Amino acid sequence: MIGVIGGTGVYEIVTMGDEIDKKVLKTPYGNSPEVSIFKLHEKEVAFMPRHAKGHSIPPHMVNYRANVYAMKKLGVNRIIATNAVGSLERTVKPGDIVIPHDFIDFTKLRNGTFYDDKTVHIDVTEPYCNDLRKIINSSGRVVDGGVYVCTEGPRFETPAEIQMFRMLGGTVVGMTGIPEAVLARELEMCYASISTVSNYAASISPTNLTIDEVFEIMDRKMHDLLALIDTTISKLTDGRSCHCIGALKGAEI
Predict the structure, then answer these.
(1) pLDDT in tens, 147-162
(2) Residue 252 lies in a domain
(3) Structural domain of residue 104, as residue ranges?
(4) What's the total number of domains in the chain?
(5) In this predicted structure, what is the pLDDT of residue 209?
């Protein structure tokens, strides 16, 4: 099964295939949002709205462990995640779709591991599955590579923070990409992010930031985003040969 964790403005994906079921999964970390399971290109796809129905859960309150664990419980072995992001570079414009290859974590309060009761040092030399990234990159017009900076939220970042992120090599900034990527790796699942640029970040944008412009861009890019996911799913095969499969090998003490 293929998992899609949808962020801002991606809920229409459930209309792309033939619906099979809807369910809420119980996990050791709490219940998941309602997951829609449907068939697309003869493959089973599980769509989970990250922020739950009605976009009711803010990014710093998302139960990332429950969400990722629920996907694993369903039998998902690949996760395609979508994120709305701000750009740290003028050359990466609102409306561009970035497929990050690395991240910088500036979150503060989130539960970022499944392994609180034993020592597991997961390797994140390649934080996103390169095999899955290659398929996404070949499936539409995207920016191949970039560094995703994740902040705690829910506020937008200050100009000083944005300048720091740029100095550190960041490309885009968002509030939902971490710890999702790490949690997926801990469960030996492939994970890649499709990050849609909704605005320039603070001090780069000529105006103050609003959530309205985020939804406006996401609405405008909806067709391209859904087409990219659709083509990616059509290209996925059953077999996996990436390093995600054995991520726990050599990580546990």
Answers:
(1) 999 999 999 999 999 9
(2) no
(3) 2-246
(4) 1
(5) 64
